[in-house]
Amino acid sequence: MKKFTRILSTLLAVLMLLSVLTCFASAANNRTFTAAQEIYSYVRDGYNQGVQGPISITKGTLKSGFSSKTVYLVTLSGTELVLNQSTGVLTDLLSGFNLNNVYYANVVSIIKANVPKNANLILAGHSLGGMIAQQVAADSGIKSRYNVLNTVCFGSPLLAAGSREGTVRRLGDVSDPVPYLSGSLFNNTLWAILGLNREDGGYGIRGITAHNESYYRADLWGKYDVTGTKYGGAKLILDLNTRVFYQSPVIAW
Fold first, then answer.
1. Distance between CA atoms of residues 136 and 143, nearest Å
2. pTM higher than 0.85, yes or no?
């Protein structure tokens, strides 16, 4: 009986140790983001030649001042010519004129299928991904089901102004031409320009380089917080264990 008790005690001790180690490992995989360029780097993971997909969702906590909210960060990468992936030129054109497209439809379907109803959302995207993020923030089905807190766009044109939920921040290097390439320019030219938060990375005529490389730079975008707010103090703690990537096929989900 004593031998059995010792074995049982040993097993319980091992189970407790494993439980502690699991909790520790989980906690160690949390990552705190404090600035916009960190969010951009996270968005860039979606450029993976279709191996994982251009869309990802991660659960986390948004902290600003004394406020703390559970959120789901949805990241969307931009134009990428991948077979059977809806991130090509046709999608650029459709989204640029704020028209329905498969990438947009896929993102809405994926959010509804994988994020609990009434959850808080933060959307972040680069280039085409930022346009899709704005369309999602203006989607009636998303707005009725979720709380869209923030949309952060890197090098993205203006879309759906006036109908987007939450706060939208568009960040653009002065040498990046892409933020001005939108159908919204025909009816909202002034806001398309003045609504852009610009920084000068010194790229000059190297517009494509600015479009892809500027937003990594802490010297330019470190003054913007995770919501894209200049001199804001919000930070985002993400549980990387919860991050899931999703494909965006050319046929809608």
1. 9
2. yes
